Amino acid sequence: MNHVLNGLAVNPALPDELTDRLIEIADADLAGRLADRENLSRAQAVALLSRVDDGGVSLAYGGRLTAADVDPVQQPHAALALLDQGLGHPEWARLFAADPEVRIREKLAACPGLPPDVTERLAADPDVGVVVELALWTREPGVAAPLAAHPHTEVRRAVAANEATPPAVLAALLHGEGLPPAERCPVCDRRNTPGAQDPDDPRPHGLCPDDPRPHGLCPDDRDASSDAACDGCHASASHDVRRAALANPATPAEAAAGFAGHPGHRLRRALAAHPGLPAEAARRLAADPDPGVRADLARNPAVDETSMRRLAEDEDMDVRRSLALNPRVPLDVLVRLARAARIASTLLPRIAPASPEEVGRLAASPDAAARMAVAQRRDLPAAVRDALAADPDAKVVKSVAPHPGLSEERLRSMVDRHGVHVVTPAALNPDASAALLETLARHRPPVRKALREIARHPRAGAPALLVCLTDRRARPLAAAHPALPPHVVTELLSDPDESVAEAAAANPALPLTVMRALIP
User: What is the C-alpha end-to-end distance of the chain, expressed in Å?
Assistant: First the structure.
């Protein structure tokens, strides 16, 4: 019965009186569903908050509550949600900073605009998790510098990942300049046995397991695990700090560029994605022996054209696919990649902003891959759209079939010519009529994926939806469709599949008398 009430809670046709009755019996799960109702009044939101504090989080983030509605002692999670939006009282922050529950202090530490005295207290919190949250989310430049010198590497890593950290601090974390040595790391915390030896580690006892010297291993060649040991060097954790700094777009490019030749491949991968990557570093990474580094580089819009053309000839398919997703890849390179890498089944970032001249050139290309790539656009001129719909290549037609503005006659012609290849894309067309959707639902052989799209389609009529109910995966979608006859919706409430019954309870076509009978 709970799943039916959960569905009923989100039913847009549920009247206020029945919403009130659901609030009176709400548990945490039901309260979460009710909190998402678009027409929930403020009085109902306050009543729901009095039932379940956790439900207040959704209400607060949804703009249904004000500070006057919340008691921070009785509803701490709702109060924290308001603080997170800058809508709570400063006194609440001071209250939560002294809360014995670590999770409360962690959530507080992630809130913006905290009073200076609260920030200072959280920075000195005895639980490192609280300090980590503060370091990760603070937007105060003066907080980052002292936290960058924190004795725990996890705090330093959080500072390194925070895009509001000043560039000079990020550069210091990257190179370790001007910072005291770290004293603790996650391995130390977990093991609390300095010098413990991993029985499977062939290196001499007493060396940090992440020290690259004994066997030529770099810290990022092995992950810290429950078996890891640390003798105080914290090499692996310090490596993670540098990696976070390299992945931070606020880190100065000139400070990061020197890592292009670092032995750690994860550091090189982080550098390869840097938005300010200098051309010299890009060219060096384009020849990197690790295909993951080259793939990350290929996706980076900051890469120069020379490096892009070199990557376009890469022997690794993932590298070429990644380059095709680069919004600045030259168009002639992209056409070659679309054919070779088989990635034109989605709208490519370079195609989306293409000029009208480029669109016309691609649509008239003798290369089907180029026509297929531009056919993914949903704002094509009518003449270009219709020409692609008449294309002899099924993949091109499949790509353009969901485009708005295609006539029913043209859509039917596309399905007649290419059959099952175009049924699902045609079902995705927002202008598909109820009659066409019924035809697609009854297509032989059946196209299961098309049934799921038809069950979602706002224009689907009862005949098509009844066909969709025969498919296991389309059945819950069809059960929620408002065009389904009310008596069918009512019958589906007792469906053995709980997802179907819940969807039927959420259907606005469900008769009001049935809604009343469902609520105890």
Answer: 10
Cα separation, 486 vs 492, in Å, equals 10
Where do we find the tokens 């009755």? Answer: 21
DSSP 491: H
Percent of the chain topping pLDDT 70: 90
Dihedral of CA atoms 55, 57, 59, 62 in degrees, nearest 10, equals -140
pLDDT tens digits, 132-169: 999 999 999 899 999 999 999 999 999 999 999 999 99
Token pair 């009095």: residue: 50
- Supply φ then ψ for residue 252, to 5 degrees: -55, 130
Alpha-carbon distances of 313 from 334, 339, 387, 392, rounded to whole Å? 12, 13, 32, 30
The Cα 312–Cα 500 span in angstroms is 48
Query: What number is the average pLDDT over the span 198-206?
Result: 36
> Mean pLDDT for the chain?
90
H/E/C letters for each residue in 407-469? CHHHHHHHHHHHCHHHHHHHHCCCCCCHHHHHHHHCCCCCCHHHHHHHHHCCCCCHHHHHHHC
Q: Is the pLDDT of residue 115 over 80?
A: yes
Report the distance separating Cα 237 and Cα 446, nearest Å: 55
How many other C-beta atoms lie within 10 A of the C-beta of residue 213? 10
Tell me the residue length of the chain: 520
Q: Give how far Cα 114 sits from Cα of 69, 99, 197, Å.
A: 21, 16, 44
| Non-local CB neighbours of 305 within 8 Å, separated by 6+ positions | 330
Structure letter (DSSP) for residue 484: S
Would you place residue 56 in the very low, low, confident or very high pLDDT band (cuts 50, 70, 90)? confident
Identity at 104, one-letter amino acid code:
I
